[in-house]
Design a protein that fits this description.
Organism: Treponema peruense
Protein name: FAD-dependent oxidoreductase
Strand order of the largest sheet: 1-2
Shape: elongated
Radius of gyration: 11 Å
GO molecular function, one term: oxidoreductase activity
Helix content: 25-40%
Number of strands: 2
Keywords: Membrane, Transmembrane, Transmembrane helix
Pfam families: Pyr_redox_2
Length: 42
């Protein structure tokens, strides 16, 4: 994956741990992250 510039805003749809890892990386570099996750309780 290659980006020329970081996104200003990022929406995370889902609740997977890999998505959360990417979201935390983007947030650390200054992107505003909105987590719209759907959690299922087993």
């Amino acid at each position: 994956m290659s980006l020329e510039k970081l996104p200003e805003k990022l929406v995370l749809i889902g609740a997977g741990y890999i998505g959360m890892e990417f979201a935390s990386l983007y947030a650390a570099f200054g992107s505003k992250v909105l987590d719209y996750g759907v959690f299922r309780i087993l």
